[in-house]
DNA sequence: TTGAAAGCGCTAACAC
DNA sequence: GTGTTAGCGCTTTCAA
């Protein structure tokens, strides 16, 4: 079965030039600088290319020569379906993708995840053909961060960890935002408050897979700064109101599935039957908690106040009282900082807004 | 401000070798073949590398030399947040990412979207440093497909278009699956049926942005084969039951936002007040339609039967009668076929299952 | 165990 | 408008 002009060896720019008896430069120009040669010659080059099955300049070779990979690497802590199951994370990626697209850059999802060992993951980071990295919401002790830094490429950290030397940072003031929300809850009259958080540390807590009362050790030294900040914000508000932050019931949800919030709410309720408010560090947690409360016949906000964090569409639709943060902008901004490649690390704090929905009211 | 050993010029493998007065081969081996040199020497190489700030072999140069980019390109028709807003698409990407990860390959989201012109998008495809492409659910006349093919790399098409020469294909038998579902609906006694579809063509329909009764022209020659197949499946079932497929009310939803299904349902109801069943070519459409019906006080399934397609988690949770397709597997399989790089195009049809939920019943 | 030589395919200076 | 030259940084025979 003769397959049309398939030379045994793939055509290259050089072979095309030889065929046409012109220089490689001219062929290169035909692709990259159309104005540098006559239209006829260019046409002749392009048509010969088609005839020879030359696919155009090899991207890798070009990258080597120009020192630009044309892509941005995205490092996420969690496996993809996991991290993207949170609409806020998805919005972030969408924003990042948008800015990459506008800059003509690809977005490389670096193959790091639970299927591979840390050394394999590091190898993937070291082997990524990119011009810079975006690190999304990693723990302070993320095992891949050192490899990213080793590359000596521009890095933008989103959300956490804060203070990575030489890297830009984009995020929000989690502590202040959460404090503002907590102040509102306290103002409503709540005194018995529980806080449902996402994981505080990379290491699994001892007590099994489900949500559990947060371990003091984990609370004291959380690897995920964002959670720590949000907890801190609630404590700040309590302290400012003359309440004892130590009385706050904190439940950590290590794995986040669609029902984690409900399970965490259950743990909180069991731990303290007098609770009147459930504050959550993520909307997905709050929404799930609300579902659970409804199933248990606990009315929101009449019997229980529930708040979230993020401002994902479903939360706003359902009237959740929450902090809205600009997730898409975060992604966009992160990309822009990378594409700027000014070299100077930038810290950018985006604004948030407390949205008073229909899920917070005075305690019964 | 003296920044630690920052040579004016970035260290390279060659400069490291020169510094150590050993050959480049040996340095290369220190990174790639630890067994090819003594542990001490390797240690010396690595520590000198650290001292000089050498980040390890340049990925791009290595790719040029080894002829392997170490990444797979993913071409999606829709902008990211758009295509990922469908959980089925997200599952697909998760599956693909998983197989890439297992193969140690990165996943490059190619910068193609509405922010860039077609020629810019094509340039991005031509410039992507990848070893192969996955094309996800593109239209028959997708403007980037030719560029993908031009690259002469392994290609796996997912869902549509079918029959791309030289490319593998992974998908399901949409027609048979939809037919089976329609047979069930007809069997229940439904005669007045509407079908709500996703977009049938890349070009916007004339009648404005919202869902509209499908244009005959678009129906006759849909650019999105999957929709065509699913429509065909319903028609097959009707014809087999002695019904006139021409009586089917078809509403096309060009843009899909979270409320599109409801809007489409409204169009269908207005067009035919006697409808007793709303079949949808996607769960997201069906779920939104159900919300709309509830808001209108139309009881499902008592007054209206609703069916979906895909089997996304929320649909199953809500008891939607639908076709479950293995979206994650689709992604995984697509990746595997690419990593196989056998060269021989493969066609792989995954199995589906009709799930009889709580949203289909006999007509009132 | 190490080294020398030979490119991978391309583009950027610079000359003509 | 076109060609010549010189690498980009690396790996891979092959030979020592």
UniProtKB/TrEMBL annotation, chains A, B:
Domain of life: Bacteria
InterPro entries assigned to the protein according to its UniProt record, in alphabetical order: HTH_LacI, LacI/GalR-like_sensor, Lambda_DNA-bd_dom_sf, Peripla_BP_I
Name of this chain's protein: LacI family transcriptional regulator
GO molecular function: DNA-binding transcription factor activity; transcription cis-regulatory region binding
CDD domains membership: HTH_LacI, PBP1_LacI-like
PANTHER family to which the protein is assigned, alphabetical: LACI-RELATED TRANSCRIPTIONAL REPRESSOR, TRANSCRIPTIONAL REGULATORY PROTEIN
Pfam families xref list: Peripla_BP_3 (PF13377)
SMART domains hit by this protein: HTH_LACI
């Amino acid at each position: 079965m003769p397959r049309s002009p398939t030379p045994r060896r793939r055509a290259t720019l050089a072979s095309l030039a030889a065929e046409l008896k012109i220089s490689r430069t001219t062929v290169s120009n035909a692709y990259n600088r159309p104005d540098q040669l006559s239209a006829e010659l260019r046409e002749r080059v392009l048509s010969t290319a088609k005839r020879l099955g030359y696919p155009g300049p090899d991207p890798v070779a070009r990258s080597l020569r120009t020192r630009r990979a044309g892509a941005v690497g995205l490092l996420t802590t969690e496996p993809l379906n996991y991290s993207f199951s949170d609409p806020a994370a998805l919005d972030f990626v969408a924003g990042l993708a948008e800015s990459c697209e506008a800059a003509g850059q690809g977005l490389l999802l670096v193959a790091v995840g639970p299927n591979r060992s840390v050394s394999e993951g590091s190898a993937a980071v070291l082997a990524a053909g990119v011009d810079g990295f975006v690190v999304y919401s990693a723990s302070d002790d993320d095992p891949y961060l050192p490899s990213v830094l080793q590359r000596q490429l521009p890095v933008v950290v989103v959300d956490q960890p804060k203070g990575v030397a030489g890297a830009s940072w984009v995020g929000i003031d989690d502590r202040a935002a959460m404090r503002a929300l907590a102040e509102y809850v306290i103002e409503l009259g709540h005194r018995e408050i529980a806080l449902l958080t996402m994981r505080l540390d990379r290491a699994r807590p001892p007590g099994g897979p489900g949500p559990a009362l947060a371990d003091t050790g984990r609370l004291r030294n959380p690897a995920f700064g964002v959670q720590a900040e949000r907890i801190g914000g609630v404590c700040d508000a309590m302290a400012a109101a003359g309440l004892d932050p130590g009385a706050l019931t904190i439940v950590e949800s290590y794995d986040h599935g669609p029902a984690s919030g409900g399970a965490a709410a259950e743990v909180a309720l069991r731990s303290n039957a007098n609770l009147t408010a459930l504050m959550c560090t993520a909307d997905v947690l709050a929404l799930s908690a609300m579902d659970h409360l409804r199933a248990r016949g606990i009315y929101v906000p009449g019997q229980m106040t529930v708040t979230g964090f993020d401002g994902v569409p479903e939360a706003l639709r359902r009237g959740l009282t929450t902090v809205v943060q600009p997730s898409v902008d975060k992604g966009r901004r992160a990309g822009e900082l990378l594409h700027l490649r000014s070299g100077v690390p930038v810290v950018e704090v985006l604004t948030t807004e407390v949205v008073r929905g229909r899920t917070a009211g005075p305690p019964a």
